Structures are given as C-alpha cells and as structure tokens.
Amino acid sequence: MVAPPDNDVLWARSLHHTHNGSPALSGVSLGVREGEILAVHGPRGCGKTTLLRCLAGQTAPQEGEVWFNSAPVHTMSPFQRERLRRDRFAWIDPEPTLVPELTAWENAALPLLLRGTPRRAAKAAALEWLERLDIGACAKRRPRALLQAQRQRVAVARALAAEPAVLFADEPTATLHSAEGAQVLRTLTAAARSHRITVVLATYDTQVAALADRVVALLDGRRVNAPRTAEVEGRDACSLSV
Ligand SMILES: Nc1ncnc2c1ncn2[C@@H]1O[C@H](COP(=O)(O)OP(=O)(O)OP(=O)(O)O)[C@@H](O)[C@H]1O
C-alpha cells in the first residue's frame, strides 16, 4: 500500500463498487486537499452518493483504497470507521435526518455530546451555529414544529458545530427553494473556509458546483472532465464569499 500525498486530507484510488451487481463506481480516483471545497458533480445516478459514502467510511468499496490523512480507511474495522465518522467527519443528507424527540439545539449538539463534550459547551456551540443560520429562535422546538427548510438548517448547524475535519454534503440544498438554498450554501461555504473545514459536496446543479474551489465530474461511475464554466465561476464565487 502506498500512502497518499501529504497535502491531501482524503485520497481515493481506483474505487469500484456495485449495488446488486449494477456498477455505481468504476475506477474512481481523487484527492481532496486540506481546507478545500470540492464539488462532485454529475447527473442523477452517476455515483455521487456512493463515492461520498466510500470516502466517508460509510460504505466499504468492493475494490480500491480510501485514505484519511495517513490512515487507510478501507482496511479499518467497522468500529474504527464508526469512530472516525463520529470524531472527524460530518454528514448532511438531502433531507434533514433529525432525532424527533430532541429539540433543535439538542439535535445540533448531538455529535459533540456523543464525543463527550460537556453539555454546557455543546449547547453553547449548537446555539451559536443555530444563530448563524438564522434559526436561533427555533432552538427549543422539536423537528415536527419546524418547516422543512428550518430542519435542514438544523442539520447544517449540527454538521458545522462538530467542527469536523471533513464535511460531506450530499445535495444539501436539493429540497430547498433557490433563495433559501443559496443562503444556506453561502453560510456553509463561508463557515467551512473560516474554520478550515474540508468540504466534499455532491451536486447535480452546476450553480452549486460553481461555489466550490474545484469540481470533479462523474458520469456513469467514472471521472470525466469537469465543465470549464463551473471551474471559472467557482473561482469568482470563492473570492466573493471569503
Ligand atoms: N441501494 C442501492 N441498491 C441498488 N442500486 C443502487 C443503490 N444505491 C444506488 N444504486 C444505483 O447506483 C448508481 C449510483 O447511485 P448513486 O446514488 O451513487 O448516484 P447519485 O449520482 O448520487 O444519484 P442521485 O443524485 O440520484 O442520488 C445508480 O444507478 C443507482 O440507481
């Protein structure tokens, strides 16, 4: 096994994965640099979610290697991968997945509480991120009392409050209307840049991909050349949002 380059926080080599025999990834390799926002862009079904799951240690690829810093994720036990996910990674789904019995702030604080952060500190961090996402007033409400867009903001606050090394965001604004989605993405990318959080963002939307520092394009489970416009727009968007 050859360890990844030093400046890559995540590195994947020749990932292959099938779901019930149908190929989802066919030899994808990529590196993610520390602190960068990388968009994985492509049409529905091209393998974005499968790639993010392999990188995040949720799915063990059938072939290939995934490294986080100098640790080989592909050879870790399920317990080690779970610890890695809990302590170093955060994940945002397209639909908010919150614990219905907990309030918004308790949901946002949950990853910190699971890591053993004292309750007072975890609550302070959760409230701070809920405020930044303009839902501080909802902190004591349970998910069923929130709108879908508010629930997704709680999920984003939960991911950012944990200050992960890598944040995986799988179509995080797909269910939001465009103005709402743009605001959530601006907060997410600005927070990631100011806290040096590496972001891997799956999206089929070229405008969302343009917010990233770099775009990796997928088609039918393989890497293809990224659209040039997205990269150019991405650089412009970066300078605006820093
Ligand atoms: N659990 C599963 N069982 C069977 N096939 C699956 C499963 N998950 C994904 N697939 C298939 O694998 C391929 C890649 O799916 P994947 O979800 O990774 O792509 P995607 O680009 O994220 O798509 P989307 O944007 O629709 O989520 C698709 O053909 C999909 O139908």
TrEMBL record:
InterPro entries in the record: AAA+_ATPase, ABC_transporter-like_ATP-bd, ABC_transpr_LolD-like, P-loop_NTPase
Molecular function GO terms recorded: ATP binding
Keyword Membrane included in the entry's annotation: no
Keyword Nucleotide-binding applies: yes
Source taxon at top rank: Bacteria
SMART domains named in the record: AAA
Similarity annotation: Belongs to the ABC transporter superfamily.
Name of this protein: ATP-binding cassette domain-containing protein
Organism expressing this protein natively: Streptomyces tamarix
Lineage, top ranks: Bacteria, Bacillati, Actinomycetota, Actinomycetes, Kitasatosporales
